[in-house]
Amino acid sequence: MRSAGSEPPLDEGAWDRRARSRSPSARWIGWRLRGLVLAALVGCLALFALLRALTASPALDAPLVLGDNGVLEVGGPAAPMAVVGLIDGDGRLQRLDALLLHRSARWLPGDADRAELARQHDLYGAALVAAPVRLTDGQGQVREISVRPRGAAGLGWTFWLVATLALLLYLVTMVVVMARPDPRNALYALMALAQIGNLLFLAVLWTPAPGWPPGLMRWEQTLRTLFDLATAAALVQVTNMHPRPLPGGPVRALAAWCIALGLAALVGAGLLDQAWWWTQGLLIVGALLAMAQLGWMQRRQPHPLAHQLVRLCGAMTVTLVLLTAMVAALNPRLHGQAAFIGLAVWVIVLSAMLLMLPFLSRTQRLMREFSLLAGVSTVATALDLLFVAVFSLGNFASLALALFIALALYAGARQWLLSQFVSRQRLTTERMFERVYRMAREVQLRPADVGEQWISLLRDLFEPLDAQPVARRVRNSRVVSEGASLVVPMPLLGPAPHDAIVLGLADRGRRLFTDDDARLADRMVDLVTRVVTFDQAVERARSEERVRIAQDLHDDIGARLLTLMYKAPTPEMEDYLRHTLKDLKTLTRGLAAPSHLLSHAVAEWKSDIAQRLAAADCELGWSFAYDRDFELSVVQWSALTRVLRELVSNALAHANASRVDVEASLHDGTLSLSVSDNGSGRRPETWSHGLGLGGVRKRVKQMGGSVAWSENGQRGIVCRVTVPDFGRAGGP
Amino acid sequence: MAVKVLILEDNPVARAFLCRVVRESFSDVITLVEAGDLEGARKQVALAGGASGMHGTDPFKLVLVDLELPDGNGMDLLSELSHYPATKIVTTLYSDDDHLFPALQRGADGYLLKEDRFEVLVEELQKIVRGQPPLSPAIARRLLTHFRSGADGEPAAQGTGLSSAAFATSKPVPLADKPLDHERLTPRESEVLTYLSKGFTIKEIANLMGIKWFTVNDHIKSIYKKLNVSSRAEAAVLASKQGLV
User: Fold this and answer.
1) Range from A382-391, A594-603, B138-147 carrying the lowest mean pLDDT
2) Which of A141, A285, A618, B147 has its Cα between 20 and 30 A from that of B201?
3) Could you tell me the domains of chain A?
4) Average pLDDT over residues A586-590
5) Interface of A with B in 577-636 (CB under 8 A)
6) What share of chain B is helix, strand, coil (3-state, %, to 5)?
7) Does B169 sit within 8 Å of A559, measured CB to CB?
8) For chains A and B, what is the number of CB pairs under 8 angstroms?
9) What's phi and psi for A142, nearest 5 deg?
10) At what angle do helices A429-445 and A515-552 cross, to 10 degrees?
11) Which class is B137-228 in CATH?
């Protein structure tokens, strides 16, 4: 019934096909556009012809109204006169009563009433043609009233309203059919055309003054019964195949069509007693069957469209049942105008629903309001009739009361619906910002995870049943598969593993994606991109500044220290300066390097120490165990680099060791490091802590750890460094 | 015939120090030519037969180049001398790979850190001239990335220092082209490089792989050869023939 496919929503190929079929150039070329223009032209011409015929049709020069006690009266310049009949051309009295003001044979439950309605309208119509009309009050008074063409002003605003709606529905139907001519859309068109027929009858019969060509009422009854039954049959058939096909669909559809057409034929031929009851019964059964089919479909495999449609069908079915009950319980023969308005509202609402169906993903909120309105209008009409019948209230009083109650109902139900809707919003604005901020941090730390992060954010936002990456670039988010899926581009944050995410079935399959969702997704893409870009800019600025400081230090101070070192008067001074220069280099390197992975740092420490010890003919025992690799902070890196260098220097320079053992382990965030030698150093407690050892203590303290020296068995010294919380203090 | 050595260094004190290092390193008769800037060095090279070194009667056998110079970067001279048949050594204060690696790529056979002790420098210089290229873990990591990126067609990974900001008068250059097929690493070479990147010494690698120290060294030389122009290896051979070592 709509241009949606029944493909699984996340089938990428299906999406591709859809995307292609949606591009305007592919959709509007050639015969489709011409066909559409032609169809629109035909529609407009038909409406124009109807308008012409109607304005030219005769109408009474005085208004026929319903009197206070339910009697037909004729108004006009003279005093109102009760009417019981008209004098026909042969001078015979033909009886008329208030039934003449009732405008629909379709919605009269009683067979006798229908026949009487048709008879009176035929009679009246014929009298109008034969003009002038002679009306009598049955007590000898005869008033001869002239006839004039109805004219455009005589059509009333209702005609224009309903006719416009019919034309609109016609155009939308044509667009849907032209866009994709397939069985589903043909069924939609069928339903829409049936309702257009209903609308046209409504438009014609709702004109202020009665008086139509003889035979119209019989046609109205037959055709509108056929229209309604065809709509029901088409509904049964389409809910068998859309949004997903059901097993055994064709059989049920065929049965539905046979029964509907058979009944319509019987009604048309007048062979069926209690035709109205049969029709209404069948309509309700059809609607219930459609709902059952949609429910079955939803249980087999959730689809938001089925979910929406079942609710929609439910609302319409309830309204239909209410309407039927109302008409059955209160004889519309007595309350013609009010009942007619109730029925008119029903037809209009039904047509408007059909009008909006092709744009379901865009009009959900509107649809909700509309179904609410439909229900409430029906209730209002029913109440109005009830008050008139049961409490014998005046027309105006009952209408006002009914309207009041209906409005209260509408406001209350709407509030309740909205609160339902709001409570299902999972992410508050506050939480959403927090979430975006968190994502930005995560992306900063692990740029490779951006896809995963983004999917998880979208999951929080929309709670889709499914979220899959696809390799297809899209510029904006958009709703595809008629609201079943939403395609969201990846934020442009460097190389991404995929280009877009396809979300399937919002709210775990309970909701269709709307254009609002697409806009929200686009905003999120924007927001995330901006936040992350900002973060990166800040980080870049920081690192550029660090690099600049490091460069200045290294170039200026380094070169001077080097010159000083070459000119050092004593070897001690030279060593001191070399030491300072190395510290400066470590410092600048630490500042300038973008990252210090623990594993890389360990490799460099080992290589450096091995080289130095080899140059001094000293053996190295090395072990560095860590349970996980992570980024060292600049402080950690430079502190450990200098501590290690200092301790090894000590072993070499002061203790003349022939072997140095470095053992380190990092477990559960605690770093333990020991550097032991077999040199000549003893009794560490007596040492004076000069630049070297003082520096070690300072660095270890900087990392929040402790250091202790002790004698290493028979020979040498062991230095133990412990830093708790080493692994957790990561980050730049 | 005396072996000619060019020393390019702007700081006179450092230049004198390097002269001492060179003299101490080699037993042969040495002719030392000093230059304080790029301009001077280019003149000296031209006098000795031009940048190709082919027509020269008496080309330099060893060139020490400082990177940061008053009139430019020593890296430029290295590029100009890429086919010059001499052993080219970078002497610098910069010990980070962002500077050293591009220098190696441009044909430097090794580098000396100016702040090192005299004895250390002498030993290092001898090693380089003997044909033992330096391979720090960081450089090994970059080599691995370089060769791997050639194999997988992926851009070089972040964090290897390739794209890191450098603080220098010289901008580090990214590795230019992907290696050709015949320049792919053998599994053995790849293994050696991986061990080096983890900080193992050549001796340890020899033990781990169950091969001789020299074999490991050969692998390293082969890796370098694949990385860069083959003329340097010839230069090393030439240098030893000339009695430099």
Assistant:
1) A382-391
2) B147
3) 58-149 (no CATH), 429-535 (no CATH), 596-732 (3.30.565.10)
4) 81
5) 578, 581-582, 585, 588-589, 592-595, 597, 599-600, 602-607, 610-611, 614-615
6) 50, 15, 40
7) no
8) 88
9) -125, 130
10) 40
11) mainly alpha
Residue with tokens 């030491």, as numbered in its chain: A579
End-to-end, the C-alpha distance of chain A in Å comes to 59
B3-133+236-241, which class in CATH?
alpha beta
Mean pLDDT of the region A691-706:
83
pLDDT of residue A730: 41
- Can you read off the two tokens belonging to residue B2? 């005396």
Q: Please say whether the beta carbons of A66 and A98 come within 8 A.
A: yes
Question: CA-based diameter of chain B, in Å?
Answer: 51
Q: Which helix (H) or strand (E) holds A199?
A: helix A183-205
Q: Does A563 touch chain B (CB under 8 A)?
A: yes
Highest mean pLDDT among A236-245, A306-315, B43-52: A236-245
A409's tokens = 């109902």
A562/B115 Cβ within 8 A: yes
Query: Which chain B residues contact residue A565 at CB under 8 A?
Result: 115
- Render pLDDT for A288-298 as a digit per residue (tens, 0 to 9): 999 898 888 87
ipTM of the complex: 0.71
pLDDT digits (tens, 9 = 90+) for A58-67: 888 888 877 7
Whole-number percent of chain B with pLDDT over 90: 2
Angstrom distance (rounded) from CA A278 to CA A718: 103
Q: Where are the domains of chain B?
A: 3-133+236-241, 137-228
Query: Buried b vs exposed e over A317-343: b needs ≥16 C-beta within 10 Å?
Result: bebbbbbbebbeebbbbbbbebbbbbb
For B173-211, give the DSSP string: PPP-SPPPGGGSPPHHHHHHHHHHHTT--HHHHHHHHT-
Confidence of residue B239 (pLDDT cuts 50, 70, 90): very low
